[in-house]
Amino acid sequence: MRVDRLPSPGETVSGHDLRHDQGGKGANQAVAAARLGAETAMIGCVGDDEAGTGATSALAGEGIDVSGLTVAAGHPTGQAFISVDSLGENSIVVVDGANGLLTPDRVRLESARIASAGVLLCQLEVPISAVTAAAELAKGIVVLNPAPARQLPHDLLTRADVVVPNAGELATLAGAEALPTTIDEITALVRLAGLDRAVVTLGARGALVVDGDRSLMIEAVPVDVVDTTAAGDAFCGALAVALSEGRSLEDAARWAAAAGAGAASVRGAQASLPNRSRVDRLAGLA
User: Average pLDDT, stretch 236-263?
Assistant: First the structure.
C-alpha cells in the first residue's frame, strides 16, 4: 500500500492504492535470476491455499523449476505486508506461514540439484537449519543474503562464499548496536562479523565490496526511484547470475547495482524485476 510517509510507533496513517503482487525474498531472487538468463530452480515451502497456487504458477511461468517446492497441507503461504512512502522507501512485515516448515530433511531430498548448481543463493525467510543444510550440500558458490536480520551460527557464515547484507543486517551479524555509516565502519564490521568476502548494499549510496584485504565502493546507478521493494532481491539475483558466469566479485557487484536500480524505478515486487537487456543498458553494456 502507498502512504505519504511511514508511520511512527503507535501512529496510524492513511494508506491508498492497495495492490497485490507476487513476492517473498527467495521467490523474488529466483525470478530475478531467471529473467537475467540463468537456469533457476526454487526450493521452498508453500501452503495449500490460493496464495501458494498463485506463487507456484508465477514461478513456473518464469521458467523456474518448481519441483523442489513442498505444499504444506493446512498451512497458509507466507506473506508480506509492505508500506511504501512518497520517496519510494518501504517498511515490511513478514508472516512466515509455510516458509517456517522447510526442514533440513526436505532440503536434503534436493541434494543432487543443490550439488550440481553453479551458485546456491539463500536467504533467511526459511529456517536457519534448512539454509545450513543447503550450504552443506553445495559444491558451487554459496551466496547468502542474511535477511531478515538475525545473528547466525559461525558454521553457516563460514560455508558462505559471499555474504550480501545491508547495513542493518551487517550490524546484527557483528553484534553492533549502531548502524555503520562510513566505509571504514562498514569494513570494520565485516571483519568483526568474520566475513572474508561480502557485498554490503547501501541503497542510494551503492554497495561496498569487501574481498579479503580489499574494499571497493560501487556507486549506485542513477534512476528515478519509485519503489525500493525487491531492489535488494534484484541485486542478489543478479550477483548470483554474474558469479555463475565467472565474473569477478567487483564486476558482479557493478552489474547487480544496475539490476537493483532497475527494480527501484518500477513499482511492485516481482513486477519490478528487470530483464537482462535492461540491466545491461543501465550498466552501460548495451
Answer: 98
Residue 196, φ and ψ in degrees, nearest 5? -90, -40
pTM above 0.85, yes or no: yes
The domain limits of the chain are 19-282
The sheet with strand 15-16 has its strands ordered as 15-16, 2-3, 79-84, 90-95
Q: Which residue has the cell 556507486?
A: 219
Terminal Cα distance for the chain, rounded = 34
Q: Catalytic positions, please?
A: 233
pLDDT of 128-165, one tens digit each? 999 999 999 999 999 999 999 999 999 999 999 999 99
Nearest to 38 by CA among 244, 230, 232, 233: 244
Tell me which residue has cell 498451512.
75
> Yes or no: is domain 19-282 CATH 3.40.50.1820?
no
Beta-strand ranges (E) seen in the chain are 2-3, 15-16, 41-47, 65-72, 79-84, 90-95, 119-123, 141-145, 162-163, 197-201, 207-211, 214-218
Report the Cα 108 to chain-centroid distance in Å.
22
